Amino acid sequence: MLNSSSELLDNSSDEVLVENQKQYVSELRERLSVLRNLSELADDMICFEKARQIYRIVHSIKGSAPILGFDRIGSMAANMISEWEWTQEEGNEPERQVSLQLQFVESARVLDKFLPELEQELESHTSGIRPSNVQASNRNMDSDIQLAKRILIIEDDNILRGYLARKLFLDGYQVDEASNVEDAISLLRNHHYQLITLDLMMYPKSGYDIFEILKEDMMIRWIPMIVLSGRDDIRDKLRCFQMGADDYVVKPFHYDELCARIRRLIERNQEYNFMAFHDPLTGLFNRRYMDKQIQLELARVNRYPSPITMILLDIDYFKMINDNFGHQIGDVVLQSFSNILTSQLRKSDMIARWGGEEFMILMPGTRDAEAVSLVESVLTHVRENPIFDDHTRNIFITFSAGVVQWRPQSSVTVWTRHADFALYKAKRTGRNRVVKSSLRKTVAKKILVVEDDRVLRRMIVELVNGCSEQVLEATNGLEAYELLTKEDMDLCILDFNMPHLDGLAMLRRVNQEGIVSKRTKFLMVSGNESHDNIKTALTLGANGYITKPFTFPELKKKVLSLLQQR
């Protein structure tokens, strides 16, 4: 049976070649007719542009003819191209134009000799083409088919493009075609591709234009690309690699070699992507991937409006599992929970390990009410089934979740922060529940971090960046005081011991002068656990107090809690 399948694929491949040869013969005759007309216009004063047209046609024949089995024709075209490289040079001076016109007249004579030989070779080759008995519709659909791997062929030679598309289809790829830069960009922005093959010499826009667009578009800039070019020029190769090409194949090429390069490049890219964008413990996507995916999904929603919902969830009392059973069992719990999320949710839902025991889920095309229902069904499942069972003990877990639907004109920071708010509300109100929050239009939150230790200050700023649209910094109390007189803050994280003006002194001063907005909250940070200091800070208007050393999740929890207070 395997031999029959292999035979069928071979015959189907032969059928593709024969059909493309027939089409190529027809198109080649048209090209020869165009070449003959151009050569007869040698006395035209715009002959230099006509020379460029001839060059493009012969260059295309040089690259495509051998791929389709017309080796002699391709060789003849290559010989002529070597004499015509001057057509690619620029020169607008009158003397240069006269020189080029004379070269054109001379080259037209070469073309007059070339055409009859080429037509004779074409007739000779055409007589050897025999139709295949295998129908293309009998394509094998066994396990080797890889239709999930989608390729875009950007090529202005219709016959070569069609040939490559059909051959790659038989080798198991889903293939889209573009004959120009505009169509290619449209396809790239509407579909997800694993690889692009790019013809470098297209008209009127060249393949180089694709590179410029790819560089600016985050959605498509990482797609692997193989350049297919008829120019074996080191300058072209270097330029392409410098602009982002992954491989460079010179026409004419052997299809099997190109196919092997495509397969390896896709496999290698998938391997790199897996390592870069997956959590090694759970196998889920990681935070790096989800940060990128959020941007891609919102770009898609902006073009084609549809609902999308974010869920942040956190396993309840996970620290107790690690403390009571050990980190090895904790890792097993994380893996089992990841498997439950993957099996219970839909294939369209994107799941990532956000950090520690926290997970993020993106649900494209889903409203918040439907998302709540889906997550609650998962919560019911984990409540009723042990997450770990080794026949001597059963471990059950629950989780808390915050659900927020995207609203237009909101930033990703605001969206994520509201999901954080909803998650912490679920935890404060008893855990083991799902809380929905509305992403309303809100005033941008501002946080001021006041800390004289540069390293600790930067770490705190990084932590609270996700909780606010704007984070300001101050290295001492006096600098912080001046900022508070100029701008309204939602939260001031204030170190107790600082030069010039310590935390308590600054609180006294802003209270006496009444310069701070009523909405501003103060969180005192200190290594001093004195009860009197805490009492004094609270009396002076501090809304919270945290002592060093503290954990960053603990600090984040306090920050989110204070930002939610009105």
Structure, described:
- Helix 5 (158-170) links the parallel strand 1 (150-154) and strand 2.
- The termini are far apart.
- The chain has helices at 2-39, 47-64, 71-83, 94-126, 158-170, 181-190, 208-216, 234-243, 255-277, 287-303, 318-325, 327-344, 368-384, 412-428, 454-464, 477-486, 503-513, 531-539, 552-564, and strands spanning 150-154, 174-178, 195-199, 225-229, 247-250, 308-315, 350-355, 358-364, 388-389, 394-395, 399-405, 434-437, 446-450, 470-474, 491-495, 521-526, 544-547.
- By secondary structure, the chain is α/β, with parallel strands linked by helices.
- It has a five-stranded parallel β-sheet, sandwiched between helices. A five-stranded mixed β-sheet has the order 7-8-6-11-12, with helices on both faces. Strands 14-13-15-16-17 form a five-stranded parallel β-sheet, sandwiched between helices.
- The chain contains 19 helices and 17 strands.
- The chain has four domains: 2-126, Up-down Bundle (Four Helix Bundle (Hemerythrin (Met), subunit A)), CATH 1.20.120.160; 145-277, Response regulator (Rossmann fold, 3-Layer(aba) Sandwich); 287-437, Alpha-Beta Plaits (2-Layer Sandwich), CATH 3.30.70.270; 446-558, Rossmann fold.
